[in-house]
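Homework-ish question, so no full write-ups if that breaks the rules, but can someone show me the predicted structure for this set?
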Amino acid sequence: MFLYDFTELTSSIHEGLVSSLGEGLLTTTIEFVIAGIAYLLFFAIFGLFAVYLERKVCAVIQNRPGPNRVGPYGIIQTIADFIKLLMKELIPIKNSDKVLFNLAPFIVITATFLSIGAIPFDKGLQMMDFDIGILYVTAVSSLGVLGILLAGWSSNNKYSLIGAMRSGAQIVSYELSAGLSLMTIIVLAGTMQFSEVVAGQADLWFIFKGHIPAIIAFVIFMIAGTAETNRGPFDLAEAESELTAGFHTEYSGIKFALFYLSEYMNMFVIAAIGTTVFLGGWQPFQIPGLDGFNTVMAYIPPVLWFFLKVFVLIIVMMWFKWTFPRLRIDQLLRLEWKYLLPINLVNLILMATCVLLGWHL
Amino acid sequence: MTNTIANIDKEEDYFLNLGPQHPSTHGVLRLLVNLRGEVVKDLKPYCGYIHRGIEKMCERNTYPQIIHLTDRLDYLSAHQNNEAVCLLVEKALGVEVSDRVKYIRTIMSELSRIASHLLWWSAFGMDLGALTTFFYGLRDREHILDIFEETTGGRLLQSYNCPGGVMYDIHPNFQKRVKECLVHLKKKLPEYDKLLTGNVIFKNRAIGVGLLSKEDAISFGVTGPSGRGSGFSCDIRKLEPYSAYDKVQFDEIIRTECDSMARYKNRIDEFYQSMSIIEQLIDNIPDGDYQTKMKPIIKLPEGQYYQRVESSRGEFGVFVESRGEKNPYRIKFRSPNLANLSALDHMVRGQKIADLIAIMGSLDLVIPDIDR
Amino acid sequence: MNAIVEYIKEVLGGVKSLLTGLSVTVKYFFSPGEIVTQEYPENRATLKMFDRFRGNVYMIHNEQNQHTCTGCGICEMNCPNGSIEVISKTIVVDDKKKKALDKHIYRMGMCTFCGLCVKSCPSKSLAFGQEFENSVYNRSDLTRILNKPNSTIAIKQ
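A: Not a homework solution, just the prediction itself:
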């Protein structure tokens, strides 16, 4: 069994620091810096990999080989692109609101960072284990829309403004569905703390435990999550064929790269929340009763389990994007208010009934 | 129609320049769109960004030389445009071409119609945000382009027709390849329906969007699959059969829903009609000359001539006034896209900006044909 | 009640149509053998253009560096773009003065590859090549002289 509690590692680092530097501001700062660097590295590496993955997935779907020139199978392609973006000129925009224009990408990135912090990658491998983890993640992940609105407003570009307008309406509505579908699982789990949500799925994942209502909630969560990341059939804020590039039309160089990476990291956040809440987080796939099978599954390290599930969900989201046409803004809102929200509410009641009557597995 | 620019300085007007460089105008078309929020109040197209003076260039050229210029009007129905000029010259001179030429021309026309509609399908999907359709459409179009290249030497701009016949005889592989291509298309076309036609998002984007009544279609001169989507019977292949169209059985596809979906489904059905026309002709291409002997210098008798054909996008007409010279005194092309574009403003008023893109996609505009 | 049934039908129908779309793309996702892309610079060795492909226009020369062009200028006359210029000279053959080709200038930059020159040539001395990599660094490189240096006219048998 590879079940290793990362709190041992983190607490040993903490104790080492305390013993040498003493309890105080310096220790806390160093700990923050270490954690920050670790997350930044993860952000960069995972973002680049996700971009590469998306290119390959869409290429195969579209009967193309995809990037295959830079490095074997083109794996260095995204890194090369990123370096190119780093070196590109930051084009100043006439009559733009300079402060907000420069601030916007960082708001988007910050929102993503805040959400990643609460996600447990493994037992104890988590920045902060809030007791209201799920609520916290839903709260901070919607901060990103502020950045998009600011980007659209400050660019002094008509396309950007329309894109930002759409994005505002979209994210505000889809927050509801995402939140309610998570609520369905909170009813089942009885807790909002991520570590306990994961611990509750040790024998069986919640998507199986809660059977029908959990599956409905999962589907709705995936739809709402895709909408929240401004992707797939819900990419109205970018809407390439309508608004050229939507809210980031005027951005160039590294600021564009930040928007671009944050899109993929948002995708990771959604996939990670989906994994943690519905698919058992880092817990291996277990079927009660099949002990041999369960032991084999448990031999796969939990971190691998976590990333495996995350990648499956990410690929599913890519699959959506490369299959469906884009919705119109009124249809998008109608889908939320007329379909997802009522179904979600009924589903919540259904789940509550199931839990009360003990119908869940 | 009221002039939209007259009220430009009203404060609530929000003007957006769509184009000349915009991903969904498929060329250099500029649309000045007056928006209220997401809703399009009205729009004004500005043409001329790709005006090359082709009609003027034609006046200095001899009739065989005009043909390669007509390729460059609507480059996706290059073969049909060529055919119009050739038919006009043959009609004016009273030359009767052999059946073989007629069959070859008809097959080629229908192949280019399929190729054109495939590209339209790809681009329409892309306009609506389904990027994968673009690659599927182009993948299948490649087979037809290979057939073109093998027989005519050109993939997009074939210049295959010439007054009195076609430039070369068909390639020995032609019939085999066409049949293979049809088999391939029949396998792939149902996928198109699965991917886009039945899709609930696509249905919502297309049904009831961009209404154009029959009366409006006639008065704007909207022809082709777009016009027939409004119930306007305008298929030149039926009305004035040319080449071998009188020898084949096919249906004129007419829908009366008048929306984007009707235009879309019309084109999808035309795939099958075109394939059926090709199937009827491909095995019975008669023997004969691929070219009637023409005089080295073709001079049209004095007079005015008009010939129209059904191009992939609608009625393509050529008007020639000849003064008995070897080049036309005045030539005028009736291009379908200009007429189709003129109806756009009427169709998009009160619709969303996303619908504007969808309607433009459903009209299947090719910009070089608008500006000429 | 009817409305609820309709609503559920609508939702299920929508989901079904989406799943049909997804089934198409997932089919291609799991069949990478369907990839149709030609990787161009790598497949140069195997890339074969069709016989009738309209590449560069060239003049047919035989092994003795002889061509059949008589310098009549029909191709020049037929070219819609003025991209061909035939410069002829007078040569003396068997004590008779004869018009012959001096330079056949072909400006590829102006050529639209319509094929009228090749088709109209009475002595069949022009042909389309298979060359399609026509980019050059200098625009003057696009102006070519089609008859090879010191080439002569082939004597008709």
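Now go work out the reasoning yourself. Hint: Chain C has two domains: 2-34, 57-153.
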